[in-house]
Amino acid sequence: MIDRKNRYVALIEAIFLAHYRPGDSEVSFGREELVSTAKSLGIDLPKNLGDVVYSFRYRVPLPETIAKRAAQGMTWAIKGVGRSLYRFVQVKHCRIEPDAFMMPIKVPNATPEILLANAFNDEQALLAKIRYNRLVDLFLEMTAHSLQNHLRTTVKDIGQIEIDELYVGINKRGRQFVVPVQAKTRNDRHGVVQTEQDIAFCRERFPAMICRPVSVHALDDNRIVFFELTMDNGGICIVDQKHYILVPSSDISAADLERYANS
Questions:
Q1: How far apart are CA 258 and CA 263, in angstroms?
Q2: Per-residue confidence (pLDDT) for residue 1, from 0 to 100
Q3: Residues 6 or more apart from 159 whose CB is under 8 A from it?
Q4: CA–CA separation, 42 vs 241, rounded Å?
Q5: In angstroms, what is the C-alpha Rg of the chain?
Q6: How crowded is the C-beta side of 41, counted as CA atoms within 13 Å?
Q7: CA-closest candidate to residue 103, choices 254, 245, 237
Q8: Alpha-carbon distance 86 to 30, whole Å?
């Protein structure tokens, strides 16, 4: 039996190659093609049909057979373009990956232990740490409040999207912001399409507020990495990156405080 990973690769390759012609920068397909393609390949579909597309949009890279057909400096991404409709598009290649040499900032851990002990999964625990330690406030230098988590909604011309947590905030000058946060744990990867969708949602639902998309990555060494992202010249770019590590107050030394004062 073909394992899930190889099933997904075989399906997405077959769908892409059935439509792609040399020189194409966009390749459209419908969700129903997963069913017909699986049948022609003799592949058992997963119970959650949407997980095939979701995996390549947000979790794992597209197979090399697809990636190598992108122009230099570009990469393929899968965008939603309506209900059960998708499109492979070429986008600027942006690696949203932590800088291993960046020094983490120690933050006194204010997360209730009972909450961590009973969190359902790593992502839930990460979002709780962000919320209870006001890391969005620290990173963006504003007062921010969680409006809703795991927000599932629709955006015109895109379809359904999900935002891990949505914040609203205000700074000392009275400017108001909306902050969509995408949280990544373990080997999950941030897809630039997520940020494009988040920006489109904010423009549609909060036109008077400034959108500041954030991506958060939890690393194995307990660092929590924050990226502020933006759209520039048709692509997603990194505006800022900071690393935080939650520790007991006793673990923050006088030398640490002096270093922060002089930085």
A1: 9
A2: 42
A3: 80, 81, 82, 83, 84, 85
A4: 45
A5: 20
A6: 22
A7: 245
A8: 6
Alpha-carbon distance of 104 to 221, in angstroms, equals 11
> What is the enclosing helix (H) or strand (E) of 201?
helix 192-205
Tokens of 132: 């209870």
Q: Picking from 115-124, 175-184, 224-233, 240-249, which range would have the lowest pLDDT averaged per residue? A: 115-124
Give CA–CA dist 37/80, Å, rounded: 19
Q: How many CB atoms lie within 10 A of CB 256?
A: 13
What are the backbone dihedrals phi and psi of residue 146, each rounded to the nearest 5 degrees, phi first? -70, 125
d(CA 126, CA 40): 41
pTM, to two decimals: 0.79
What is the Cα–Cα distance from 174 to 140, expressed in whole angstroms? Answer: 14
Tokens read off for 51: 């997980």
Please give the C-alpha separations between residue 156 and each of 73, 161, 201, in angstroms, as whole numbers: 29, 11, 8
With a pLDDT cut of 70, the percent of the chain lying above it is: 97
Q: Which two tokens stand for residue 124?
A: 């839930």
Residue 246 structure tokens? 């939650």
- Taking the C-alpha atoms of residue 235 and residue 232, their distance in angstroms, rounded to an integer, is 5
- In the chain the beta strands, taken as DSSP E runs, fall at 26-30, 74-82, 85-92, 105-108, 143-155, 159-170, 176-184, 210-211, 214-218, 223-232, 235-247
